[in-house]
Design goal:
The structure is a homodimer of 246-residue chains.
Chain A: H1 18-28, E1 40-45, H2 48-54, H3 62-66, E2 69-76, H4 78-85, H5 96-119, E3 123-127, H6 134-141, E4 147-156, E5 174-176, H7 184-196, H8 198-207, H9 212-220, H10 223-239
Antiparallel strand pairs in A: 1-2, 2-4, 3-4
Helix pairs in contact in A: 1-5
Chain lengths: 246, 246
């Protein structure tokens, strides 16, 4: 099953039963979590008006409007903080460690949910754009202090069957005992198969680039964008209470 | 299967076949990843000397020395940066967004690996301590610039069968369309079952505390520790090249 998994961006015109979503979200709660605090929450978007509001901040990717359901997974220390307030405990979770702990919980939970959903035959697409416009998503979803959106999933019944994309050989990823920085020969061995794929060759031609790596550095994930978004992200963490005000 | 999953801290005295670990790590590569860049790497620790070195930084939890294998999952932009350097591309990934993107990739990959390993009957424990002493782990595992350890898993064949621990009801986690901050009544509804568990009542008695929340705020995850570790984390991100030097 997993061997053939692929991101699904086109969905059948058929709702995803709420009982099914609830069952999968509940089962995914078995995922390990820090101190069993479950430092995450999920905002479910089914209302077309809400989808319309969110779409521009996910770069108007068509699946945001087309998918029957969107799930925004959030790092959440708000709920635990509220619990503490109601229980005469003094919470100290407005800091960067707490953000990373909650983001970890949210991402592990999200991935278990994805695995379960795909095992049911559902298709999904993970939207990395959530980190690009966090302040607008926070506004639209009414996220309070100590809640930070981390990942959005579009979910539906597949209406396409794309071929699995390539992956690096394990030699690129696995290090025994200590990390070994890849030599030029390692890079050639691990990346040449990817670089030789016809679709990647075509990318170079269309974009008038010499190497596949330049597609990433010059077009898809540029230094300029990365640095601007990094500033937004840090400002948003500050706004949400996860970084000290300097 | 997932319904009964539980963290395993005691392992049988029996190795985990390397071919099995490699197969599971390879299968887990199907996990979605940013731009298909696979911004993660894994350092496998089997050498007892290395386990001995790492143990203190995981608070000497016994499973670190006892488990046949430790896997440290890292956010990794070093490999992609090396690729760019070998391909006349100018990488711009020494920033906070790139760290979060790589940490996301690493955590999603880690969780798929965990699900696959548990489906094979393996047991594992997720060590959150990786974020507590990142600089020592970086030193012991020889992690270069743009690699940050994010999660460690101890892995082995189970030698215990603990009962599943409690989880919050879905009402605590799921928000429809917009986030709704929990009222006092919501907190009572969602947390009272946990607070009433005999083992949690016993915790209060042993530690002379009035509420379960105080166990977390006063003993397990204190403001003082959280704030100190936050500073270490930010300094380590700076050291590894993921935060601008101010």
């Amino acid at each position: 099953m997993l061997k053939n998994r692929q991101t699904i961006r086109r969905y059948a015109n058929r709702p995803v039963d709420r009982a099914l979503i609830n069952r999968l979200l509940t089962e995914a709660e078995r995922t390990q979590t820090m101190g069993n605090l479950q430092l995450y929450s999920v905002v479910l978007t089914e209302d077309p008006t809400q989808k319309e509001q969110l779409a521009p901040y996910h770069f108007n990717q068509p699946m945001v409007r087309q998918a029957p359901a969107l799930l925004t997974f959030c790092a959440d220390f708000h709920r635990v903080t509220r619990w503490c307030e109601e229980r005469e405990a003094d919470p100290g979770y407005d800091n960067f460690l707490s953000f990373l702990n909650a983001a970890t919980d949210a991402l592990l939970y999200c991935q278990t949910f994805c695995t379960l959903a795909e095992a049911e035959g559902l298709g999904l697409c993970y939207l990395g754009t959530t980190l690009y416009s966090p302040q607008d998503i926070i506004r639209i979803l009414h996220l309070p202090r100590l809640v930070m959106p981390i990942a959005t999933i579009t979910l539906g019944w597949p209406d396409e069957q794309p071929a699995p994309t390539d992956r690096l050989p394990l030699s690129a990823i696995l290090h025994e005992e200590t990390y070994h920085s890849p030599t030029r020969a390692d890079i050639d061995r691990d990346y040449k198969p990817k670089e030789s794929l016809p679709e990647n060759q075509e990318f170079l031609r269309i974009n008038d680039k010499q190497t596949l790596a330049q597609i990433f550095t010059d077009l898809r994930y540029t230094r300029r964008d990365n640095e601007a978004i990094s500033q937004t992200l840090l400002a948003t963490l500050r706004q949400q209470g996860f970084l000290e005000k300097e």
